[in-house]
Design goal:
This protein has helices at 11-36, 43-56, 59-89, 94-112, 123-143, 153-169, 176-206, 210-232. The relative contact order is 0.21. Helix 3 crosses helix 5 (123-143). By secondary structure, it is mainly alpha-helical.
Length: 233
């Protein structure tokens, strides 16, 4: 799932990777919201909150939204720079390495979150989660050739609508490619929702420590590819 890139990837591979990472993103988004009152993956909502705060004079809403957006962008920048540097040096399975790094960081955040200071805004935890979601989205976008995004459900819903329109126009002789893309987008959206529900349940039972389970899932996902890359080096 984290080895082949771009056109060499099959719909089935994108489906497995997209659903797994979308479920994790949904869990992080839900747990993060319950912990700090802000979404780590929903940049559309954060930009809207910033705009509302500007009009209503809510300085804290503006600063919080700005911090989350900046953290998300920073995560995407770091992931992209790491990917390019790894490609230049011929490092194998860079995408898997970044996902593993994200998983380790999630585990660490889940363990230290109860000790972090609870300042104004989203705090260290919220901005850290935003950074990791930016890393994940950039990594998956890069490896899938922009076919899959695991934190950006607005885009996935748009893609679903586009494919659904094509299917409706040719429903008497539907294209197998359109049907496959419909399954891909629909499954990723469903995985995000189910992951969010699981994240909310986990937070209700274990609090922010539930993030360690999500991080462990990413490590398990990335580990086989990282090991394979090291053996092939």
């Amino acid at each position: 799932m984290l080895v082949h890139e771009g056109p060499s990837r099959s719909i089935r591979t994108d489906l497995r990777l997209g659903c797994t990472l979308a479920a994790v993103a949904g869990g992080v988004n839900a747990a993060g919201f319950l912990a700090v009152g802000a979404y780590a993956a929903n940049m559309t909502g954060n930009l809207s909150a910033m705009a509302t705060g500007l009009v209503q004079g809510g300085r804290m809403a503006v600063l919080c939204g700005l911090g989350l957006v900046a953290a998300f962008i920073a995560g995407a920048v770091v992931a992209t720079l790491r990917l390019r540097a790894g490609c230049r040096r011929g490092v194998a399975c860079m995408h898997a390495r970044i996902i593993m790094l994200e998983g380790m960081a999630l585990v660490a955040l889940g363990l230290v979150a109860p000790c972090l200071p609870r300042g104004p805004g989203a705090g260290v935890l919220g901005y850290g989660l935003g950074f990791l979601m930016g890393m994940q989205n950039a990594t998956v976008t890069h490896i899938s050739g922009a076919r899959v995004r695991t934190t950006h459900m607005t885009g996935m819903l748009t893609d679903l609508g586009l494919e659904l329109a094509q299917w409706m126009e040719n429903r008497l002789a539907p294209s197998p490619d359109v049907a496959a893309r419909l399954r891909l987008h629909g499954a990723i959206i469903a995985a995000f929702v189910l992951g969010g529900a699981a994240g909310a349940l986990g937070y209700g039972s274990w609090g922010v420590r539930s993030l360690t389970g999500l991080g462990a899932a990413l490590i398990v996902l990335a580990l086989p590819a990282v090991v394979r890359g090291r053996k092939g080096a």
